[in-house]
Automatic annotation (TrEMBL):
Keywords in alphabetical order: Cytoplasm, Nucleus, Proteasome
Gene3D superfamilies on file: Glutamine Phosphoribosylpyrophosphate, subunit 1, domain 1
GO biological process, one term: proteasome-mediated ubiquitin-dependent protein catabolic process
Function: Component of the proteasome, a multicatalytic proteinase complex which is characterized by its ability to cleave peptides with Arg, Phe, Tyr, Leu, and Glu adjacent to the leaving group at neutral or slightly basic pH. The proteasome has an ATP-dependent proteolytic activity.
Residue intervals passing through the bilayer: none
Subcellular location per the Swiss-Prot or TrEMBL entry: Cytoplasm; Nucleus
Protein species of origin: Leucosporidium creatinivorum
Full protein name: Proteasome subunit beta
Cellular component, GO, one term: cytoplasm
InterPro entries named in the record: Ntn_hydrolases_N (IPR029055), Proteasome_beta_3 (IPR033811), Proteasome_bsu_CS (IPR016050), Proteasome_sua/b (IPR001353), Proteasome_suB-type (IPR023333)
C-alpha cells in the first residue's frame, strides 16, 4: 500500500471562461475504514487563490499552516496579495525543501490572477510543477478523474456549466474509488465572487 492511500481523498481543478473551479471529496479514512466525512482538503490562500492538499491527513494540516504563515509573510513584506502563479512556486519550493523526507501530499492550485485570467497547477510530493490550460487532478482517484474530465470538460465553460462539469467529474470518479467519496465540496472562483457548494454523494 502507498502511504498516499492511507487516508485517501482526491482533488480536481478546472478552467472555465474567466473563472476556475476546484473541488475535493470529504472522506477521511484509515485505509478501508472511514473515520470522518467532513474532512475538507481545499483551503483559501487569498480571496482569489485556493489550493487542495490530498494525501496524508497530518501532512495536509502541517503544510496548510506552513503555507498560511508564508503567505502572510509575503503580504507583509511585499505589501500586496500573492498571485496564484507566485503561490504555485511558493508551494513548490516549500515541498522541495523537504525532498529527502517529503510531505506526502500532491497539491492542486486554482485561482484568478491580476489580469482576471484563470490559472491552475498541480505538483507531485516534491514540488514538480505541472501547469495546465484545461484541468489538473490528484489523489487516490486520479486515474478515474482523468477519464471523467477528458470526457466532460469543454473549453470556455461559463461558471454554472463549469460547476456542473467539475461536480459530475468528481462524483462519478470517486464512486469508482474505495478511498475517496462520502460527499464533496466545490469552489467556483470568478473575478468578482467566490461560490462554495457542498455535494451529496454515495455514503457506502
Amino acid at each position: 500500500m502507498s502511504i498516499m492511500e492511507l487516508n485517501g481523498g482526491s482533488c480536481v481543478a478546472m478552467v472555465g471562461k474567466g473563472c476556475v473551479a476546484i473541488a475535493c471529496d470529504l472522506r477521511l479514512g484509515n485505509q478501508a475504514l472511514t473515520i470522518a466525512c467532513n474532512h475538507e482538503k481545499v483551503f483559501a490562500a487569498t480571496e482569489r487563490t485556493y489550493y487542495g492538499l490530498p494525501g496524508l491527513a497530518s501532512d495536509t494540516i502541517t503544510v496548510r499552516d506552513k503555507l498560511r504563515q508564508r503567505v502572510n509573510l509575503y503580504a507583509m513584506k511585499e505589501e500586496r496579495t500573492i498571485e496564484p502563479e507566485t503561490f504555485a512556486h511558493l508551494v513548490s519550493s516549500t515541498l522541495y525543501e523537504r525532498r529527502f523526507g517529503p510531505y506526502f501530499i500532491e497539491p492542486v492550485i486554482a485561482g484568478i490572477n491580476v489580469k482576471d485570467e484563470p490559472f491552475i497547477a498541480a505538483m507531485d510530493l516534491i514540488g514538480c510543477l505541472n501547469f495546465a490550460k484545461d484541468f489538473v487532478v490528484s489523489g487516490t482517484a486520479s486515474e478515474k478523474l482523468f477519464g471523467m474530465a477528458e470526457s466532460l470538460w469543454e473549453p470556455d465553460l461559463e461558471a454554472e456549466d463549469l460547476f456542473e462539469t467539475i461536480s459530475q467529474t468528481l462524483l462519478n470518479a470517486v464512486d469508482r474509488d474505495a478511498y475517496s467519496g462520502w460527499g464533496a465540496v466545490v469552489w467556483v472562483i470568478e473575478k468578482d465572487k467566490v461560490t462554495k457548494r457542498w455535494l451529496k454523494a454515495r455514503m457506502d
